[in-house]
Amino acid sequence: MANYILLVDCKDEKGLIHKITGVLYNQGLNIISNNEFVEEEADHFFMRSEFTGEVNGDAIITQLRDTLSKDSNIKLIKQRKKRIIIFVTKEHRCLGDILIKNEYNEINAEILAVVSNYPDLESLVSKFKIPFYYVSHLNKAREAHEEEILEILEKCKPDYLVLAKYMRILTRKFVSLFENRIINIHHSFLPAFVGVNPYEQAFKRGVKIIGATSHFVTEQLDEGPIIVQEIISVDHKYTVRDMEQAGREVEIMALSKALKLVFEDKVFISNNKTIIFE
Amino acid sequence: MANYILLVDCKDEKGLIHKITGVLYNQGLNIISNNEFVEEEADHFFMRSEFTGEVNGDAIITQLRDTLSKDSNIKLIKQRKKRIIIFVTKEHRCLGDILIKNEYNEINAEILAVVSNYPDLESLVSKFKIPFYYVSHLNKAREAHEEEILEILEKCKPDYLVLAKYMRILTRKFVSLFENRIINIHHSFLPAFVGVNPYEQAFKRGVKIIGATSHFVTEQLDEGPIIVQEIISVDHKYTVRDMEQAGREVEIMALSKALKLVFEDKVFISNNKTIIFE
Amino acid sequence: MANYILLVDCKDEKGLIHKITGVLYNQGLNIISNNEFVEEEADHFFMRSEFTGEVNGDAIITQLRDTLSKDSNIKLIKQRKKRIIIFVTKEHRCLGDILIKNEYNEINAEILAVVSNYPDLESLVSKFKIPFYYVSHLNKAREAHEEEILEILEKCKPDYLVLAKYMRILTRKFVSLFENRIINIHHSFLPAFVGVNPYEQAFKRGVKIIGATSHFVTEQLDEGPIIVQEIISVDHKYTVRDMEQAGREVEIMALSKALKLVFEDKVFISNNKTIIFE
Amino acid sequence: MANYILLVDCKDEKGLIHKITGVLYNQGLNIISNNEFVEEEADHFFMRSEFTGEVNGDAIITQLRDTLSKDSNIKLIKQRKKRIIIFVTKEHRCLGDILIKNEYNEINAEILAVVSNYPDLESLVSKFKIPFYYVSHLNKAREAHEEEILEILEKCKPDYLVLAKYMRILTRKFVSLFENRIINIHHSFLPAFVGVNPYEQAFKRGVKIIGATSHFVTEQLDEGPIIVQEIISVDHKYTVRDMEQAGREVEIMALSKALKLVFEDKVFISNNKTIIFE
């Protein structure tokens, strides 16, 4: 008997928890965990219910539609492994962490393929018997390169794309095809050090802490909703290279936590921010 | 219009959230935040609702009694500053932190008095115009000493007693008078280093992290429900004294967080553990 | 018998540690701790020695001058409490922490006075019998306001100025009078959120971590050498006000650590960065 | 031109830094980094120098022997990858982390083999083309089992043994053969929760933080010198299984940091404690 997750968000009003849980109760379902949040500045209500039982999805949706206001967002999810595609360039650290966790079923996902604009990581990926697609970007327009990748994606039908140190900027068009479904790991504590060479910048500024940020990708580079941020202390003895290495460790941590949250349907997106029910 | 908090815990069953929020909805009340938790091993349900509106306390309680099983615990709290008494011996650090926060209304409490078995901290307390009771324990049986303190407490009628580095062990009888209402700060990361001289022990063991634990006081020394634990890194350069000093800092942090949680009615106690709705 | 601290920095070359410790050894002094660092990009050597013994300061300086290259920086410091002046505006939190620590000799400083452009904090400061100077900035040119403050400083002869939430920008001229001697606490994790309303900015960006930065003040606003950075986790439930409150806690921590390091002469400044020998 | 590391420890006396660096200076060597520490309670001096140059090891040792007291410990190390053997049982997490890091030369070690008392992890190890020795302990006396393992070790001649979740207790005899050369990861924040089922214990006690400890193995179980401790916050929602999973993450971090420190010769052992020069 699988677990189900109900995600509802709508304009706030009195009695919402009572009404929504009433629909589940009438169906004889057992709520395992329930979370709500009201975003005050937008007067908006968010709720996540995890429940088990003999689920009649259509009945639940219909009753909720009857109960709630027209513009409510209602999403009923049967828990299953998310289908994901990982994008990388040359760095192996985040990829390695995901592959090992996947090998032992510690990540709620099925890795359909790894896509890269360089061939370097094929040997690592092949150890785990996962398809590796090398799609070089050399001598190609950005759009043409993405077209080639899209062909792969169309075959795979992924739920999420994970940019695990993919060092290419995606076009607006590409991003719009996967709205709220692309997760990136950014090598800095956003919004500090946007753009390239964040460790070089951090070194020059003499910071004492460096960070990493996992976020959804939107059309604005490095501006999407933040899911997880992690930090690590550094000091004057750290060279740029040392900072990079320390940075890798927090990148792994931040991405790993973000994937766990997203793949367990614990993340709402609202006003370019995330609401996370842990 | 004050905020109210409803705390309910009872045996778990289907529909509890629906039923309890229904009582509040029928009264036309507006839930600001709602938290639930089911303790699986005990099959027990916990819920905390914070709400505003025209509250008829008796009606709410009556309807909840009618709705829920007989052995449910129901507590309706009108938010107000908790009345507290602080116990200290000679150390000023946790006390100083509380006094400064209290001076600027940053703590949801009214300090009725400070009680100490030494006179040392009177000058600090008097700066803040708070009564200081020096009750020496010298040449007195433990019970006789506590009797003197109880006389003060009877006049003050405190909600909570805060042991902010009070270096005396309380009798079972005294503790039983304030069940779940005495909060202690323990100078170690419990359950490591119970008892005296934890920093001496930590130094000898060569630990790399020291901690502090804020917990409710029960009849078993250092064994009560843990509310907050905090830690700080140390290394081989730390002397016992350095560890003590670092320890003070985490003690302040741990106690400060614990008081905030307890004074905002966010803590349930169950099976000698705490369930905290942050 | 007091402790002495020797701070030397110069162009790196072979044998520096041997030569410098030789001068101390010849004087029969006992090194308690010794730290060195070579800044590779500048090929520059830094050393801090803490020692005890019968110190002939002139002899040490002369011998070091003979031993080291002409452009070496040599500073011999007899350990004593630093003379400091604290600047505040209306916020009491950092000030309160320093006052309590000072009351119990936990800070290696003597507070000569507190200066403020508002009268609000006089009642707090007076509890601790420390002079409070209220110098309003209203209807005054920035320079005129600073002139009034400088009169106070000239009488006090402070070693350091501590800006414990002083919400005024200092003129270049003022800053230049106290080069490397003004310590500020900045309410963000620099370089993120420079300027005003950092918590408002942080809230809008939906960050998951907020921070505070203690740094030396230079003529470039928020751009001086960073001494300490601290962070705290936040989530979607935090309002701007909650973030501010959490921010205060890390501000206190960051400033407190920075003052400890600076007042114990553990901080070198080089290329707008700090080298810290803990 | 390789880096060399000199480790010296001896009874403390005046001038030691000067004398030891003098030997290196006379040989025309260039000190890259230098660390000293005096353990006050034992009046013992520790120094680590990292240097480059044309090294005549015999000359350095001879001169140091002439300069220092007879009972000094002097160790001159040419930097190279440490030869290690990893011991595991069934858990893959720490092993996986080490294998991935090793694959990309991020660990200063050469993995000679993985030894296990179960066959489960062979498939993971074989992906990385590293010998895997399955040595079952079933129906064997502890000594007989260790004899079989010792045969493998004798062929491999490892510098260090890494117990990456090896769930067997080693005999005193075995431990004595590899004094200060066996590194373990212990699944708790020692000294809390020694022995078996630490997460079960932690769950029952309702702790708010769980930890992991990497330490050298001595004849006293769980009592050896601590190298690194790491922690992670947990709350009432964590089941025993959740705690185990969170614990795995900190175990990986703690072991990874400990291996880095040990394999870069940054760790002294003294009085069952570690002195670590980072």
What is the strand and helix layout of this fold?
Four copies of one chain form a homotetramer.
Chain A: E1 4-11, H1 16-26, E2 30-39, E3 44-52, H2 57-67, E4 73-78, E5 82-88, H3 93-103, E6 109-116, H4 122-127, E7 132-134, H5 142-156, E8 160-163, H6 172-177, E9 182-186, H7 198-205, E10 209-216, E11 226-233, H8 240-263, E12 267-270, E13 273-276
Parallel strand pairs in A: 5-6, 5-8, 6-7, 8-9
Antiparallel strand pairs in A: 1-3, 1-4, 2-3, 9-10, 10-11, 12-13
Helix pairs in contact in A: 1-2, 3-8, 7-8
Question: Would you give an account of this structure?
Answer:
- Four copies of one chain form a homotetramer.
- Chain A is an alpha/beta fold and 278 residues long.
- In chain A, the strands form three sheets. The first copy, chain A, has a seven-stranded mixed beta sheet with strand order 7-6-5-8-9-10-11, sandwiched between helices.
- In chain A, strand 12 and strand 13 form a beta hairpin.
- In chain A, helix 3 runs parallel beside helix 8 and helix 7 crosses helix 8.
- Chain A is globular.
- The mean pLDDT of chain A is 93.
